[in-house]
Amino acid sequence: MSIQIFGLPVSRGVAIGRAVLVASSRIDVAHYFVEAAAVPAEVERLRRARDTVAAELEQLQSAMPADAPPELSALLDVHLMLLHDDALAQPIRQWIRERHYNAEWALSAQLEVLARQFDEMEDEYLRERKADLEQLVERLLSALAREARGAGQGAGTPAALARDFGGEDPLVLVSSDIAPADLLQFKRSVFTGFVTDVGGRTSHTAIVARSMDIPAVVGARAASRVIRQDDWLVIDGDAGAVIVNPSPIVLEEYRFRQRQIELERARLHRLRHTPAVTLDGEAVELLANIELPADAPAALASGAVGVGLYRSEFLFLNRDGDLPGEDEQYEAYRAVVEAMDGLPVTIRTVDIGADKPLERLSAQELRHEHGLNPALGLRAIRWSLAEPAMFRQQVRAILRAAAHGKVRMLVPMVMHPRELRQTRELVERARQQLDEAGRAHHRVELGAMIEVPAAALTLPALLPEVDFVSLGTNDLIQYTLAIDRADERVSDLYDPWHPAVLRLVADVIAAARSAGKPVCVCGEMAGDPAFTGLLLAMGLRSFSMHPAQIAAIKQHVLRADTARLAARLSASLAAPDPLHAWTTA
Ligand code: PEP
Ligand code: MG
Known about the structure:
Layout: E1 3-6, E2 8-11, E3 14-22, H1 39-62, H2 70-84, H3 86-99, H4 103-119, H5 124-150, E4 171-175, H6 180-185, E5 191-196, H7 204-212, E6 216-218, H8 223-226, E7 232-236, E8 241-244, H9 248-269, E9 285-290, H10 296-301, E10 307-311, H11 326-339, E11 345-348, H12 363-369, H13 380-386, H14 388-401, E12 407-411, H15 417-436, E13 445-450, H16 453-457, H17 459-462, E14 468-471, H18 473-481, H19 499-514, E15 519-521, H20 529-537, E16 542-545, H21 550-558, H22 562-574, H23 578-584
Parallel strand pairs: 3-4, 4-5, 5-6, 9-10, 9-16, 10-11, 11-12, 12-13, 13-14, 14-15
Antiparallel strand pairs: 1-8, 2-6, 3-7, 7-8
Helix pairs in contact: 1-2, 1-5, 2-5, 3-4, 4-5, 11-14, 14-15, 20-21, 20-22, 22-23
The structure holds phosphoenolpyruvate (PEP) and magnesium ion.
Phosphoenolpyruvate binds near residues 311 and 472.
């Protein structure tokens, strides 16, 4: 039966593929694909685990004291019977052979299939046999874990899923939640789309999905419980819908849309070398947001004229507290600078905290395990200034990378001029240290991210401290409206069109321009065509976004007349419903 699940559309397009459920069973096991050549060995691992468990159960049987309750022995009989039942073993082997799942994943996938069948049974006695099955699977998993520990294996993270997969059907990832850093590991991996139960439109998981340019739906609440392993799924990234086991007609309709989207992309791609100039001759700078050095070639290929936001913190995540040293950072930054081939690169200093904690925690775990609100805590520049040794290493790495091309340094979550002065002092000290060590380095321009209302409201006090500013609208919206950007339960209140948000954005752009300081928008608003005209009307001439969005925004720029747009601005900003006013004016 086909069903539809609705969530939030976060990354556009259509993906069609088989569902791969991660960590959906109550037993947390490693999920990874085994290489084709290793499939027989994986089946053999499973057989060995079965033999081990059979021996354990037989041993328990024979050691059973004579006065033990007869039910106990009967229970072991049931477990042994299940263990030798090919109806259990055969499909598990099939998951391994056909889908290349590791043995643990195959076991938990089949447990899930059978558990649902048990749940649907009328007979209470049979329904209760589910517990036996779960116990048996746990025994098997623990036998596999013991063996894996002995063999030194330990693929336990979703990241391991990014390994090559030799299967034929495209795959769609379904999970309750995915941490941004884990999702990043899926870049250039086998998944053609993904669905999560939790998350908001500008959560970092959604942002990484957009940067991967794969259709995605987040905040789909029950998705990971409703969808079963291997179901066929259509992800409609425009509508925020997931269609489970679509009918042939629906599937054909979506395949048609997929082809249309491809044609449209190819058409837009032809604009990549066209300069972004409006109809009335205003030049507009379209820059790229990147998360990893490996993203730089895509940025260049998209026609971006530089990197407007390099989220350096992704280098710091998922390392169990082992932070990257100066040299490692320098190599990463230099790789980006060199890949951009003379174009400017804006490196944002680490923005650790909120939904990007150093430890591997998903947003849901953060919510449940940390009662405090991490978005208001020791995040971004606050954390950097609290860890001066770490911060100096990063600054030295950035200054050294600047010897290879044009580099700008951007400070996240600035709230007070003092933070910028402290950063400048730290940059000075780092420069002296590099001089003393005889290391090549170069000056960098310093910029502030304006993403806290306090900074937007007191911009004139900040401007003398910086060479440029960049509006982080994702956080500016979160902090202005008091809406956690990662929380799907309040996502309908996360409103970029709120008059308070638009007023702050317009005022920041105007104040920076009148002070002669370059201003950019690097939040998701910059890559959303719905805002291109409005931001141009506000006087913005520099936009930074995911490489995949550049062509579409350029098309809007090429068709815009900034003078005519500007004439519509003040009435729209003053209206109680700016979205309605702007779109109907
Ligand atoms: C923003 O807040 O708009 C921004 C660009 O930074 P991030 O999304 O990484 O917080
Ligand atoms: Mg931000």
